[in-house]
Amino acid sequence: MEYLYGKDMTELRRLCEELSLPRFAAGQIARWLYRRHTTDAAAMTDLPAAARVRLAERCDTGLSAPVGVSTSSDGTKKYLFRTVQGHFIESAYIPDGDRATLCVSSQAGCRMGCRFCATGRQGLQHSLTAAEILNQIESLPERDRLTNIVFMGMGEPLDNPDAVLRAIEVLTAEWGFGWSPTRITLSTAGVTPQLRRLLDTTRVHLAVSLHNPFAEERAAIMPIERAYPIRELVDVLRDYDFTGQRRVSFEYILMQGLNDSPRHLRELCRLLNGLRCRINLIRFHRIPDSPYFSPDRAAMERFRDTLTARGITTTIRASRGEDIQAACGLLSTRGLEGEKW
């Protein structure tokens, strides 16, 4: 069965041609899918009845409801989805006053191997299709409350660029969800060859997982540093304008005795000198058998205040959903894949 969800206008027009429908019918199908949230071809009433039958016989939306949910004491919800391939992914819904953010996954597992991340320990099962990425949004019970999407769930988005960019296109295109790109943030550990593609083809915000400004120290906790050095990534960013609506930020998980010293502060300032950006400090959330610990709140505030005083806007991100393993770095479906920690 062919899946409709995730198709762009080129694919929908090709489908219409194969079903002997006029090209403009692609726009009608797109509106039913992405604006009216229709899951049944029979309900697409501006298509001829015979065409609706042919469409239903050939295609399915590809949508599936979450198979589980956990609710945090702070209101965060972690949803579990099963992929077409039979693996599992998690998404985190984070309500915050008038805002509601969904942290979506782009892969089942991850192959980046970051030492401080539960998903990285899981390894990669497979990359998601655009339909599987969008399903986390479309099938969310709170879909209509969403104000923001962050690609910060399981997986490295730029390790799955075709599907991720297709999902962003559907979300932001006039024929799709019609969202402003400023409602979307993509986080990357630094797959530099795909970074220019993202920046050239979208206007979404960018968040870079930095965590250590020294190359060898960063490589010890983030193996991607050896393939794609952070300094080369920052050099790429200097070619782009972040003075308008699009923003770039750097995520920095503070780990006591590992990346929280005065020399790290100095090197961060040297690395980011002249780049219009902000730093989001994140408390380290412990995973089993981890050798790392988070500094206390006072130490995090001193780190923040020093960076801010040196001209880099710095904030401390609030931890949400830690009691249901939904906070930063904790998403994992390893146990469901038949493996143990």
List keywords for this structure.
341 residues, alpha/beta, 10-stranded mixed beta sheet, 12 helices, 32% helix, 19% strand
Characterization of the model:
The protein is α/β, with parallel strands linked by helices and 341 residues long. Helix content is 32%, strand content 19%. The relative contact order is 0.12.
Map the helices and strands.
Blueprint: E1 2-3, H1 9-18, H2 25-35, H3 49-58, E2 59-60, E3 68-71, E4 77-82, E5 88-96, E6 99-103, E7 107-109, H4 118-122, E8 124-127, H5 130-138, E9 148-151, H6 161-172, E10 184-188, H7 192-201, E11 205-209, H8 215-221, H9 224-227, H10 230-237, E12 248-254, H11 262-271, E13 278-283, H12 297-309, E14 313-316
Parallel strand pairs: 1-2, 6-9, 9-10, 10-11, 11-12, 12-13, 13-14
Antiparallel strand pairs: 3-4, 4-5, 5-6, 7-8
Helix pairs in contact: 1-2, 5-6
Task: Summarize the structure in short.
Helix 5 crosses helix 6.
What order do the SSEs take from the amino end to the carboxyl end, as H and E? EHHHEEEEEEHEHEHEHEHHHEHEHE
Overall geometry comes to globular
Biggest beta sheet attributes: 10 strands, mixed
User: In DSSP terms, counting alpha (H) and pi (I) runs of 4 or more, how many helices?
Assistant: 12
Rg value:
21 Å
Overall mean pLDDT: 93
How far is it from the N-terminal to the C-terminal residue, by CA? 36 Å
Estimate what percentage of residues fall within beta strands. 15-25%
Give me the oligomer status.
Answer: single chain
Low-confidence stretches: none
Tell me the structural class: alpha/beta
